[in-house]
Design goal:
BirA Bifunctional Protein, domain 2, alpha/beta, 12 helices, four-stranded mixed beta sheet
């Protein structure tokens, strides 16, 4: 190994230092605690999956972002780039069809993508999957739970952009173009490149008036109440999608969370397995969604288990960036216990820890001044074992 690499880590990865790691772990635990109150059970899957598991996805996935490696038997493995597909595999092969399953997770995923603030190649996701439940009732539960989880950890200023795959499918069905052309339209909408979309539709011979109507429909700003409008002269698939969204929003209003929602009919997700409502969550200062999800009713068919499903994932690191103080512990007393008698120091430390104190020890001869300096460097309160009482206090953490 090159000496230059010994102290480095791969691009897109990071070390979590003391304090940082605590805040991240606390955020994960707080999110999972909130999700568990809705009856979700924690599961986990291996970091390594067979690459073929991700080839079963419909066209449109980002397979080029997957970290691949070869095992000793020549089989292609992949670091999981997300959690939904591994969970679909697990449910199909390991769990009985005792639906609905409410599952939650918190774990690392890996994607080889461009590195920017808030976008790394290794990151943690916390999320849920609701399997075996169809319709607006399940979708509104997923939306309400995502909103409640973010509120529970202290995030207030965020927006849920809610859309539906039926809008795009209705639009594409009306075009009757070849697959490669339809995929280009999908990509442009996914990237929200509406200038590029207009130019592409024009190059394919679509009349300018129709282009204006299509792009205007996709980019119009709608509130949840706008879904109740009398929509006409739209393809049947789009009307069905709007009706589905209207019922989801009606139920979400009962939860009291519609204030966070805006309707964005251009909202899509990178994963092509979504079949119904989809959403992404945005907050100020982060150029990428901090979470998202939607309905994926056909994904489990790839493992021979037909099952409706819906869910979401939240990006832990992006939430931390949105709320720098999230998970920051209250000042917890750390005790530095010093003394020359090992038996006495160790026994006193054990007793203090039993009472919930955080204790580090220093056994041996040390001057009071040096003990104070050591305590201060650790952000600890100094206790002298022989004296049995508290010494001078250093800077608390």
């Amino acid at each position: 190994m090159s000496d230059k690499l010994k102290s480095k880590i791969p691009q897109g990865m990071r070390d979590w230092l003391p304090g940082e790691a605590f805040r991240k772990r606390k955020l994960i635990n707080d999110l999972l605690q909130c999700l568990s109150l809705w009856g979700y059970e924690e599961i986990n899957t291996p970091l390594l999956e067979y690459y073929q598991a991700f080839l079963s996805e419909e066209k449109g996935g980002d397979l080029e972002q997957i970290y691949k490696l070869i095992d000793r038997d020549g089989r292609i493995l992949a670091l999981r780039p997300e959690m939904t597909i591994p969970i679909a595999r697990m449910v199909s092969s390991k769990l009985p069809a005792a639906y609905p399953w409410r599952l939650m997770y918190g774990g690392e995923v890996f994607r080889y993508e461009e590195i920017q603030t808030g976008r790394q190649r290794e990151f943690c996701q916390v999320g849920v999957e609701l399997l075996g439940s169809n319709g607006a009732e399940a979708d509104s539960e997923i939306l309400a739970l995502a909103i409640e989880a973010l509120c529970a950890v202290g995030l207030k200023n965020f927006t849920v952009s809610l859309g539906h795959t039926g809008v795009l499918k209705g639009l594409l069905a009306s075009l009757a173009w070849e697959e490669v052309q339809l995929q280009q339209v999908r990509t442009l909408i996914l990237e929200k490149d509406f200038v590029g979309l207009s130019n592409y539709l024009l190059s394919r011979g679509m009349p300018e008036k129709q282009i204006k109507n299509v792009v205007g429909f996709l980019t119009c700003q709608l509130s949840p109440d706008d879904l109740s409008k009398d929509w006409r002269n739209l393809p049947e698939g789009i009307l069905a999608a709007l009706a589905d969204l209207q019922e989801i929003v009606r139920l979400l209003k009962i939860y009291g969370y519609t204030e966070y929602v805006q309707i964005d009919l251009s909202t899509l997700r990178n994963q092509a397995y979504y079949t119904g409502m989809v959403f992404e969550i945005y907050t100020a200062g982060i150029g990428y969604p901090i979470g998202g999800g939607g309905r994926y009713d056909r994904l489990l068919n790839n493992w021979g288990r037909a099952c409706p499903a819906t869910g979401f994932a939240l990006g832990v690191e992006r939430i931390l960036l949105s709320l720098p103080e999230v998970g920051k512990p209250e000042e917890e007393k750390l005790i530095l216990l010093v003394g020359t008698t090992a038996e006495k120091v160790i026994s006193q430390a054990l007793e203090l820890r039993k009472k919930g104190n955080r204790v580090i020890t220093k056994i041996g001869e040390i001057s009071h001044l040096d003990a104070e300096k050591l305590a201060s460097s650790k952000g600890a309160v100094l206790f002298c074992s022989e004296e049995g009482n508290e010494g001078e206090e250093g800077n608390k953490r």
